[in-house]
């Protein structure tokens, strides 16, 4: 693996809401057209372009999956991090000119420019985080997003069983579909075990501002919250200082907060990336919606191991978690996808 670093800051733009549904429904949104040239034997050349550091929650899961593919010998991998939106198109073109087979990234703030690059390099496959659907005018441009509402719902069941005040604080980055759907799923899970629970919902207007997230969480604790939904870094720090619990998102931070983070909804990017690698190698990569591979039944998300909280969660709640998890995986239970902005109540 080789690192190529560019500098800049994330230009935060709101993402548009996309049509969401079951895996079958989303798969039907695929567009015609695909790369017909199968790749030669050997590892694919993969490049990734990130607007934030690879340590950031969301991007870290993509980076982890790419490193796993490197370890298997499936790909060669280079990446750029901290790439500003103003510089994103240039970096995409450089990687495309360098002959990479697959380019991965997140283009929420540079959608039009990214699709133009894809049009200019029809033999290159692009797999990009996006709130838009695939389009037939860019047959080599596939999209993905982290649809981990299944795991978020299960974490909510646990949160509802652990709160005593029935007052739960929730701190997110921006009220966009990618965040909203996870919050709604979490709230639905809470209602399973604490139907009378109240929620304090706040957004800090940043993807990475731990001090602001921490201060927002403190305010919610002062407002009576005894458990926090930590969509952003900084929230668990507040919970730890005040001696209350937190629920993690995307990554498992319990090792850093062993007495605080009781459960986390994890995103696994491996099914998404592995599918793309398979399609590129076969010469059948096309403008598809890869968001479906984040669903639990596809292995794209899970509830983190309970670790230090093993045996500390009410048995009835854990029985419900296991029951619903099995039903989600076999398709008999579907967690609602609600992209509307959640509100305090």
Give a structural overview.
This protein is of the alpha/beta class and 345 residues long. The protein folds into 2 domains: 2-145 and 269-293, 3-Layer(aba) Sandwich (Rossmann fold), CATH 3.40.50.2300; 149-267 and 314-330, Response regulator (Rossmann fold). 36% of the residues lie in helices and 17% in strands. The protein has 10 helices and 12 strands. It has helices at residues 23-27, 57-72, 85-97, 111-120, 149-162, 177-193, 210-222, 235-242, 270-282, 315-330, and strands at residues 2-3, 44-49, 75-80, 102-106, 125-129, 141-144, 167-172, 198-203, 227-230, 245-250, 261-267, 301-303. A 6-stranded parallel beta sheet has the order 1-3-2-4-5-6, sandwiched between helices. β7 (167-172), α6 and β8 (198-203) form a beta-alpha-beta unit. α5 (149-162) crosses α6, α5 runs antiparallel to α10 (315-330) and α7 (210-222) packs across α8 (235-242). The longest helix is centred in the middle third of the chain and has 17 residues, at 177-193. It is globular, with a radius of gyration of 20 Å. The chain starts with a strand and ends in a 15-residue tail after the last helix.
Quickly describe the structure.
The protein is an alpha/beta fold. Helices cover 36% and strands 17% of the residues.
Give a quick set of tags describing it:
Rossmann fold, about 35% helix, disordered N terminus, about 350 residues, alpha/beta, 6-stranded parallel sheet, 6-stranded mixed sheet
